[in-house]
Amino acid sequence: MADKLRAQQQLEQLQARYIGTTHPDTTKFEWTSNIMRDSYASYVGHQPLLHYMAIGYGEPKEKIRAFFLNKMIQPVGKPPEVQE
Amino acid sequence: METYGKSGVRRVIPGEYLASDPKGRACMLASVEKNKLVYVLNRDGQKEVRISSPLEAHKPGALVFALAALDTGYENPAWAALEVDYTESDQDYTGQAYRDIEKQLVYYELDLGLNHVVRKWSDAVDRTANLLFQVPGGTDGPSGVLVCGQESITYRHSNQDAFRVPIPRRRGATEDPSRRRYIICGVMHKMRGAGAFFFLLQSEDGDIFKVTLELASDDNDNKTGEVERLNIKYFDTVPPATNLCILKSGFLYVATENGDQYFYQFEKLGDDDNEMVFTSDDYPADTTAPYEAPYFHPRPLENMSRSVGIPCMNPITDCKVANLTNDDANQIYTLSGTGAHGALKTLRHGLEVSEIVESELPAKPTAVWTIKRTANDTSDAYIILSFATGTLVLSVGETVEEASDTGFLTSTPTLAVQQFGEDTLIQVYPKGIRQILANGEIKEWPSPQHRSIVAATSNQRQVAIALSSGELVYFEADSDNTLAEYDEKRQMSGGVTALSLGELPPGRLRTNFLAVGCDDSTVRIMSVAPDTCLESKSVQALTSPPSALNIMAMPDSSSGGSSLYLHIGLFSGVYLRTVIDEVTGDLSDTRTRFLGAKPAKLFRVMVKERPSILALSTRAWLGYSDSQTQAFTLTPLNYGGLEWGWNFTNEQCPEGIVGIQGKNLRIFTIDDLAENLLSESVTLRYTPRKFVLHQDYSLFYVIETENNVLPPHLREQLQNDPSVVNGDAAVLPPEDFGYPKGEKHWSSCIQVVDPVSEKEVLYTVELAENEAAVSISIAPFASQDDERFLVVGTGKDMVLQPGAPLSSTCGFIHIYRFLENGKELELIHKTKMDQPPLALLGFQGRLLVGLGKELHIFDLGLKQLLRKAKASVVPSLLVGLQTQGSRIVCSDVRESVTYVVYKHQETRLIPFVDDVVSRHTTCTTMVDYQTTAGGDKFGNLWLVRCPQAVSESSDEEGGGLHLLHEKGYLNGTPNRLDLMIHFYVQDVPVALQKAPLVAGGKDVIIWAGIQGTIGVLVPFLSREDVDFFQSLEMHLRADDAPLAGRDHLAYRSYYVPVKGVIDGDLCERFLVLDRGTKERVAAEMDRTVREVERKVQDIRTRFAF
């Protein structure tokens, strides 16, 4: 029993430290949100990719950057209704 | 040093933002989400900066939009961050929490005493805020930050009120009066004297605004440090930038986002002009409160003037390699730039030459020399020209004029001239040698009877001549500066074609070696030392008789200092460079290069204070040691038809070269050895996207589109509207102000460009009805007797927004006929498609079209295109097509490539092999029938190959029923491609092509990246080379680790483990290593440094430049 508790605690520690660490009850919403946030952060962080998109959209890089960061707040829409 | 973030650029790696305390006491690194690290910077006695272990200021669920350091004077360092916390909105299914989200301005303070970071203050700011700028503090100002958002610039600080000014909107006939702008970059500048500072902030249109703060004064007129208002006024307009920088010398550096970068010189600071000033008194601090929008009229530069531009290839949108100028090597053509700065650029390998003098001569000279009067002179006194029947002497002074009574024999052609000894001049002519002493006395050395002089070489103290009989005669300087003949003569086995002694090393009386080239295709090195005079030291056999020889000491990377080189030019136009051992005279390390079809001539010239070799054949080349690596580099000059060249020195022109070009005498200089690519550009109208080449006409057809920009007819209509007020009617040149924006409008055109002779745009087709060109191809149609047509795919009313898929009402395919040798286009008809065709390609006398997931085959009809076949071939969106035979390679926007076979009898398209990795393909090219090279959006280059058996079965005779009935594998085609190579190049590849780059070179894969990179992949021919470079790469990974301590192998394997590629850039780092490391690496590889360098340089010169 103590082992199980420790494993649980370790997992919680990992989840606190590393964003995106999943657990058995991860919902689709959490999982996709995490993936999309990773993607948007990657677009912002890799300059050639951001530049490629900025030229495609015909906007300055700064605007596209701010747009992607903004999308990270809620990348896949509203969370699902929780059924108690 | 501390290395972190080895897993790459991710959302929790602190590295996206960096802000340093203005006093240099600490710096903060922040990631996009959650993590912030503060490093305290300490300086030890030697002024070396040391970093502490990091202090953490993490906050889960917080997204950082911007970070700036606060200027707190000498109080604790602090930072301001724009943050949004998403934890609540992630829980709230009603969406209320998301709507209520506020953007926070958060202050973090580093307590230097307690050594920890605290979240000191936070307050809600404008929801659209995207940038922060530091406001000077301490004794210089009130501290705090400027928060910039959509149409808002707000001054914020923890102990001050908020002051806000809006970003003024442009006023003009073609401007949308309700469009709100963002600030995209800016710079704060403190002026000399305390308390004076201003901001220059640039909006997305490129307009720069000057923002100033006014401080309140107390009763005694002293500044209180309390902010009273914020002012903004229009300053000037420059191209949109990623950053601005003000130099102390009064320049503004504009790091433009796209295209050439510029320096602007400040003329005034906009203090006393008539521009409207908007102050925060008139605007509410709350962005949601209503206010009257401010407007200004954009105008040409008034406060600054453009001074210098730095040419820049960034961004490249397409690239092709072709030989349109009939040179011996291919040129590179690229589409670069955006908007009205879009350009078609031509790149050629070569050095720029600036011509000083050109003058025509009465006859065609065969040779030219310059000569000084005495050994101590710095300027040349005479230019001596040799003609077929005589010699002409020109004296160089204020002007250049013919000189008589110089003592030179003018009735005979000349073979060589030399300033000899202290103050003697020597002229070698076929029948003898003439010495002109300083006192005007003339001494002659006649050649032996029935023999004439055929070759001569000399330096300041030595002269060697070859007679027609094959005898060598050697002279040295006597004590009275005259020639002293050595008794030893030597009979060569064949006729002598070239001689060289080399320059006198400083402080020495003679050089030790004489190089003799004979018509039996050999070069001999002879000693000219007194005791072993004219004894043979070594011999080298050649492929053809030598036409020119030159011994020269040049800086050398292998020996670390300078080495003696023997340059050999052959009658076959081949050039060789070998190293002479300075003791034994042995020849080693021979490198060969083909210069051109004419016999090579070699001349020693000084360029940029470096001894260089001018090698002339059909083209002129300059061999010099590269300024960075010291490696010997051979680059063609941008100067045709040169037949002779010689150093020319005088006061105005310390490093000139005098040359002969036909009947013309030319003097020119080479100013820059660092830039070995020549670039020319043709300006286009809009952002160029793709282009095709018509080989027969040597013309390019470019499609250009501009998103959210008013098309010309709408612009004109608005401009001519009678209600337009006078002041608004000014038409702004788009190259300075950009095109007027209009949401959901497209401007697009097709342009015909001649980059070779006219160097301009010949013809333009502007697309109407909100169509924008998306693809272009040239296709021959079998139904029209194989006449070629220009095919352009367009999309109508396309909506392209970040985060949403492309939508459109429909697409079209336009067919144009070439008129006037391709210089004009005639629209035949256009065919409606249900969506924009993103890929077009001529195929077996018909047209392949990619429409969404489907591949269609069309034939040309009288009224429209007629569909012959169609098939769904790729999973999401077909963006590119390549073909060989009946095989079609379709690239998908995110699912790599699929090979499709066309079965002629059944007109059936069957996909038969696809890829296992979903590559977001940007460009592809077929390397051979089985293999495709491609690049993806994440910066990878790869090569995939179809297995042999699958390839063969796809081409079996018949209708391909066996392919149709084969079972698909995992929702794809029945077969999979094999990955051959994979390599991360960082820049996004936009074009790939297989072509040779140098004259007589083999094919390489040339790629171009969006940020202006042009690179090549060179195929290895032997296993031995692979092993060599693999081991060199391995050593350099360890011995030349990058500055930040990251792992090179992990970098090149960023997305997929690197496979089958050796990093040439890393291998070339060997040339710039220090001597000790070079020797260690070479020893570990059981080679000498010279061998390693030779291999590294060879691979470059054999395939590229």
UniProtKB/TrEMBL annotation, chain A:
One of its GO terms (biological process) is mRNA splicing, via spliceosome. InterPro entries: SF3b5/RDS3-10 (IPR009846), Splicing_factor_3B_subunit_5 (IPR017089). It comes from the Eukaryota. GO terms for cellular component: precatalytic spliceosome; U2 snRNP. Belongs to the SF3B5 family. This is Splicing factor subunit. It comes from Patellaria atrata CBS 101060.
Automatic annotation (TrEMBL), chain B:
This is DNA damage-binding protein 1. Belongs to the RSE1 family. One of its GO terms (molecular function) is nucleic acid binding. Keywords: mRNA processing, mRNA splicing, Nucleus, Spliceosome. Associated with the spliceosome. Pfam families: Beta-prop_RSE1_1st (PF10433), Beta-prop_RSE1_2nd (PF23726), CPSF_A (PF03178). InterPro entries: Beta-prop_RSE1/DDB1/CPSF1_1st (IPR018846), Beta-prop_RSE1/DDB1/CPSF1_2nd (IPR058543), Quinoprotein_ADH-like_sf (IPR011047), RSE1/DDB1/CFT1 (IPR050358), RSE1/DDB1/CPSF1_C (IPR004871), WD40/YVTN_repeat-like_dom_sf (IPR015943). Residues 748-1071 form the RSE1/DDB1/CPSF1 C-terminal domain. Its main location: nucleus.
